[in-house]
Amino acid sequence: MGAIPQVLIVVTLIAVAQAGYLGGGYAAYSAPAAYAAPAYHAAPAYAAPAIVKAPVAYKAAPAVDYYAYPKYSFSYGVNDAHTGDIKSQWEERDGDVVKGEYSLVEPDGTVRTVSYTADAHNGFNAVVHRSGPAVHPGAVVKAVAAPAIYKAPVYGGYYH
């Protein structure tokens, strides 16, 4: 016999014994005067595990590197005659103040120049300038030769 059926038998016998059914049959069993019905026991009460509160999250102040003062400057430019890509930019930063400018040649031939500044007091500001004449190519007219007219050769009559 396996372990599970033995355990099941033992648990059943304990339940029957606690219910008052063992002890020589019904004739030999006499219930106490104040207790006439078999006792049904409630399942043992198990306390829920205690709720442990998580510690309050510590919000660290943002890391500020006081030793790296933000200061830089850069510039670049492209002048590609093959593709017509012509542009340039420069920018410099000193602390929280940024200044810069970029320019590019638009498809119509004008030059767009944007000068910008940014700081904590005024925010970001940009001024756009356009210079140079706009060149719009005229309509392209394609000359097409008239189609050649083909005439079938004329043969002298048909003779039998």
What strand line-up does the widest sheet have?
1-2-3-4-5
Distance between the termini: 121 Å
Question: Helix tally?
Answer: 1
The total beta strand count reads: 5
What's the story with the biggest beta sheet?
A: 5 strands, antiparallel
Which stretches are low in confidence, meaning pLDDT under 50 for 5 or more residues running? none
Proportion of strand residues: 25-35%
Q: Can you characterise this structure?
A:
This protein is mainly beta. It contains one helix and five strands, in the order αβββββ. A five-stranded antiparallel β-sheet has the order 1-2-3-4-5, with no helix packed on it.
List keywords for this structure.
five-stranded antiparallel sheet, about 160 residues
Give the helix/strand layout.
Elements (H helix, E strand, L loop, with lengths): L2 H17 L51 E10 L4 E10 L2 E9 L5 E9 L3 E9 L29
Antiparallel strand pairs: 1-2, 2-3, 3-4, 4-5
Report a brief summary of the structure.
It is built from one helix and five strands, in the order αβββββ. The chain is mainly β.
